[in-house]
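Give me the fold.
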Amino acid sequence: MIFFAPCPPGAEVLLREELTEFGAGDISSAPQGAGFSGNLRTAYHLSLNLRFASRLLMELARADAPDTEALYQLALTIPWEDYFPTERSISCRVTGVPRDKDPRFAALRLKDAIADRFIKNRGARPSVDKRNPDVRIEARWNGREAIIYLNWSGPPLHERGYRLDHSDTVLRETTAAAVLGLSGWKNIAAEGGGFADPVCGSGTLLAEAAMMAMNAPVGVHRKCWGFSPLAMHDETLWQSILNQERIRYGEALERLPIIMGFDVNPGAVRMSRANLRRAGLHSAVRLEVHDIRTGRPKLWPKGARGLICADPPYGHRGEEAPEPVYKAIGEVFRGLEEGWRLALLAPDRKTAAASFLKPEKIYPAVSGGMDLVLGLYERYGRDAGGTETAAFGEKSRPGEKQKPVAEGSEEPGGSGVSKKTYKTADAASGRDSQPGEKRQSEGYEGTGGSGVSKKTDIQMDVRVDALRKQLGRNLDSLRKWAEKCGVSSYRIWDTDLPEFNAAVDWYEGRWLHVQEFDAPGKIPRETSQCRFETLLAVLKELTGCADEDVFVKTRRRGVRPYPNRRGGTERMIIRENQVRFLVNFTDYLDTGIFLDHRPTRALIRGWAAGGTFLNLFAYTGTATVMAALGGANSTISVDVSNTYLRWCRDNLALNRADGPQHKFIRADAVSWLKDTDEHFDLIFIDPPTYSNGSGRDDWFVQEHHGLLLRLAMGRLNPGGMVVFSENFRRFVMDAGLKREFNVQEITRDTLHPDFAMRARSHRCWKILLP
């Protein structure tokens, strides 16, 4: 069996060492990965133990392929029917495609070959599931050669199973492991050194540091593997190896050095504790709420040797200027005994310099699409000038480039140099630039207050014209549909062009509600600001909205929603056909109504007649209003917020549908379901993806929906129905629910044209008793 393991750039040497340790043979280096051979036992062991690899890919075939027809013919020679049965769903992905070729078409031809092979030999073909396939097929095609793989590991290996939030706002586990590996943490731990993360966030560095110190298998908590549906999978052998590794993991807990984590945010500490508990590390890692800006915590690893590793909030976990945190970390580091080391991530060298430490080695890094730098330091004394210095390992030679440690964009089996370029300091702008990079790109890039560069004038004109045309097309088509269907509030823009990253809803032909989304970290702030202001100008031009009727919100990754600065408590009335709802454009991130659920509310109105209705996570009660107007005999609305329950009452009163038959209960939905003995004919559940609050358990829809829905199904009358909706893009329905109940996805029936093609749309199911 021949494999390829992609990894973050810069982790290639670390990956080779791991492959050697666990018995891989014929190891060959490649940019961003390594090839190797091994048997089934080796593949299982590596699946559980590789901490630096992003995936494990089993090579099936390779050949010259000058075009997609050659790729198709190569795929046609593979005996797919011997690897997995027709009943399994598949997805196909092709990377490394030349710029003048379409990777989607290449993936389509790959899929066609698999389907044609199955039809010829089995009389049927596997279905395609892009969201949650049973079998993932990958290929690398550079226009000359094609290599086709089965994804042996399945979901990315950075999804270890202990952290539930896989958004781009937190450090990936593979990158965290690479940071620790480059920092020499394994040797420090072996010598009894301690570890501290002064800004631990969700605890990724803490968990990875603990498992590296234990030399423990990082994959024992994963639930899903790509090899499970394959015909070659040996379940008996796998379970034997998995049990052995779990025992080794438990025994390794006794060998842990002192590991401590601190964060100013109590919520972050709670999240770290929850993640560590899922990893079985909660009793081995000490956590404390502490603001590093106030000095060194009293609780700190003792000893003359240790590692501080920090990924401070630099905009992705907070809005405050990051420099004071870096300064505080530098002050704490300078106060430690000689022999301590520091690994510090920063968005750029300028921010890292706020620590007043002098790095001897810096690595470019990437986290969640954001360019970073990793500085490595060692506490050993003062230089001749009296400045605290930090040397790490060998000193870099003048002009020497360090290999990058990054995440994402790995491609299997590549040849030639990595596509990642090395960053050089741009002192004038205070940001990092790429060799040969144009200072302004794609248009709309600001120049620090002096307008847009002349070099981008033509580009800007082109992109403004494209924006105007696309928005105009949206308005023309949606106006006709809205007038025909009696809809007066709808979405008119949702990142239809990627550089204009916002969602725009038009209410009653008068108010614009604009939600700006964070641009990728590699895009300068002035660039994204210029683009957004251009979008606002074109919106007002084409809709005729006045400035006072445009309400702007910003959704930041990993940052808790905050009220709009305009303030005020004025509520407006909007119409949905003949139903009226109260909305607030100023005080909250959301307005009080989720426009994408317009069809769902209409379905509820039809289904609720003559029955009892329960609205869990009721929000402002728009579904309750529809059920009441549809003829429900009684309704109960449950939410943890008194504000939203009052809003729900007001919405009912606005439609003259209020009365004693409608009850409002402030409670946690899961707890209330456990305690109540009432039964219902129709239950609507539209929970948040994440939620936490004082006195309540943290909620994550992927982890907790199974319990929630089973409780809800237990509250149904015979013939009753649960309608369940969620917005988590990587959501996977509990497989057990599908076996226990009649689960039917109705997403297509619950999306109107303004949301049908949007990435930020919900999914919806109706669930019936068997």
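The chain has four domains: 2-151, 173-222+251-411, 456-555, 594-768.
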